[in-house]
């Protein structure tokens, strides 16, 4: 990393943190008519659910074995929900369940292994219970070299398409809940670091050029656009779909990044990062608070709605992404394994 890149990254990190931490609502572009709650940047997942009784509800959380996924699952179970703890392996899923109080069920599938998603979804359907909360939390970040899954760049295939398959496989269970909620975990990179023009539909395999940061940003933009289009398709139902930006949290998500980036977070960036309990707060809040029962199609940060900017509200791009995603995953979208 040269000096100019270090300075630029430091300034971007500091600016993002400062914007999140200071100022009043007048500095934040908020969508009209969406409830603004009492919680902010420093709230934790336990604080935003204080007093809630989630008994009788079922949640599925991907990536529940570590980081904010584990904290999300732990707090939902603590509040009485039956939590299906999804992880890439059976050992990790069982380990997550054994590490938290409450009623939990392990579920093992790899978002890079699409048949495993279908098989796991079949097992979840066999539980014969509606899904009140489906939290698409798992992801990978900034793979240093181009890797492909089914001919698709791996971050896009895992972060977006894997969850696209999962949601479509379990949508009937979400719709069967009194008020099912689907929460998509995006990132600030969805607006700060994406290819010019948004989703590169002509380069989803990455062969025409690969940049780890831009590829990650594209996958996180895809999360937001998937949520946006899904919300429109759910307009006549009680179910909702929203996107969250958890903030900058030092977790093992950054294990593939160059060594200087985690070091930066632990030094200069430490002033602006969130703890894991704080990082889990927004997705837990959006998944549970009664105030958002009829709120769908929005982007949340620090437990409140924002206009995230970039291409996150591009409905034409969202519709095209859905169509392309269907084409790429058609063999895995039926409710029976292919």
Task: Provide the domain count.
Answer: 1
- What structural category do the secondary elements indicate? alpha/beta
CATH architecture label name: 3-Layer(aba) Sandwich
Q: What's the CATH topology label?
A: Rossmann fold
Shape: globular
- Low-pLDDT runs of 5+ residues are 1-26
Radius of gyration, CA atoms, in whole angstroms: 19 Å
What is the helix tally?
A: 12
Question: Any overview of this molecule?
Answer:
By secondary structure, the chain is of the alpha/beta class. It has a single domain (30-329), classed as NAD(P)-binding Rossmann-like Domain (Rossmann fold, 3-Layer(aba) Sandwich), CATH 3.40.50.720. The protein is built from twelve helices and ten strands. The protein has helices at residues 3-21, 45-48, 67-78, 90-98, 114-125, 154-176, 189-192, 212-233, 260-266, 276-279, 281-288, 315-329, and strands at residues 58-62, 82-87, 104-108, 133-136, 148-149, 152-153, 181-185, 240-245, 299-301, 304-306. The strands form two sheets. It has an eight-stranded mixed beta sheet with strand order 3-2-1-4-7-8-9-10, sandwiched between helices. It has a two-stranded antiparallel ribbon with strand order 5-6. It starts with a helix and ends in a 9-residue tail after the last helix.
Summarize this structure briefly.
It is built from twelve helices and ten strands. By secondary structure, it is α/β, with parallel strands linked by helices.
List descriptors:
single chain; 338 residues; alpha/beta; Rossmann fold; eight-stranded mixed β-sheet; two-stranded antiparallel ribbon; 10 strands; disordered N terminus
